[in-house]
Amino acid sequence: MTAQEQIYSVIDKFAIYGDFVSCKPVGNGHINNTYRSSFNQAGREVRYTHQRINKAVFTKPDQVMENIASVTSFLRRRYASQGLGDVSRRTLTVVPCRDGRMFYRDENGDYWRTYLYVENVQTYEVLESEALAYRLGKAIGNFQNSLSSYDGKRLHDTIPRFHDMRMRYEQLDAALAKDVKNRAAGIAAELDFLAANRERGMVLTDGLASGKLREGITHNDTKVNNILFDEKSGEALCVIDLDTVMPGTVLFDTGDLIRTATNTAAEDEQDVSKVRFNFPVFKALIRGYMEEAAGFLSPYEKSLIAESGRTITQIMAVRMITDYLNGDVYYKIDYPEHNIVRARTQIALIKAMDAQWNDIQQFVAGL
Ligand code: GN1
Ligand code: MG
Question: How far, in Å, is the centroid of ligand 2 from the Cα of 366?
């Protein structure tokens, strides 16, 4: 079987009508494999996104799909009831299998899913424009605000304690104790930095445990390149990559948004001198965010907005270094140093935030 025939045998399980034209791998996720297909439906081209779900990371793909279906159908109803147009471009649409299931399990035990492809959109790895940052902040604020009225059944914890800093540090400790690749000695400075910041990093985890932070719905991966911008209007339209929607504090998402939108460099920039905290972008981002989120955030949540950006950047550094020490078993890598390069950009970003910390806090407090 050729690669096209192989992929077609999977795609054919989904309730797609029309004639198959082509399919190719796309995307730059660290976890799943993504493809885009094109069909000829009665003379019109219709495109779809297909993904093979990483079963080492998502051990309960059926629960992942249940979460996604719950959230997307809630959002679709809400956007429609608000009279918003273009609803199928504002949230992902799951295309079920011909047998009605939301996923297909192939002969290797791999799980696949299909979405309508959202046309005429653009994504960004690095955000330079304040106008786009403002729209991005609004989109995530709106996403959180919309889901704050979610009334369906509680979502599954598909990756338990996903953003639990205590657990992530315990995983780092375990990786360090084994040091299977003898890499620890070469990254003493990074390990020292993480050790010095350990207690401070617990604020969101402890807040959830004590009830000072409310449990809501979290996307858990609101990095800039997971938001689709309309090609024409520039509106931040759709939040994609819903694999990790789970119960959690909304600040996980606010934090990941800050982490990725304010970094002047890519997550895996090798030249750390290019990593700076983009203050004008941060201001625009949080202005847009607060327009949507101010109404439902508690005073305590508001007080932790900037801290959430620092904390989520830190948890990424912890996870990337853990994977580096474990011999790169979790994230996809393109070269042996990839994980430590990613971690170094995170640490550089935290240092850049710290250099302007008072101004950052003052700006948020002043809103
Ligand atoms: C992974 O799905 P993807 O590749 O965008 C990771 C996120 C990290 C992100 C860092 C399930 O996301 O938690 O923030 O990489 N997803 C999972 O870029 O671990
Ligand atoms: Mg993801």
Answer: 33
pLDDT tier for residue 106 given thresholds of 50, 70 and 90: very high
Q: What confidence tier does 139 reach under pLDDT thresholds 50, 70, 90?
A: very high
Three-state DSSP class for residue 348: helix
Residue type, 91: T
Count of C-beta atoms within a 10 Å radius of residue 362: 11
DSSP output for 158-199: SSTTTT-HHHHHHHHHHHHHH-TTS-GGGGHHHHHHHHHTTT
- The DSSP result for 215-279, as a single string, is -EEE-S---GGGEEEETTT--EEEE--GGG-EEE-THHHHHHHHHHHSBSS-TT-S-GGG--B-H
pLDDT score recorded for residue 121:
97
Ligand located closest to 256 CA: 1
Instruction: Ligand 1: list residues with CB < 6 Å.
Output: 29-31, 57, 221, 223, 241, 244, 267, 316
- Residue 220 Cα: closest atom of ligand 1: 13
Determine the pLDDT at residue 3: 75
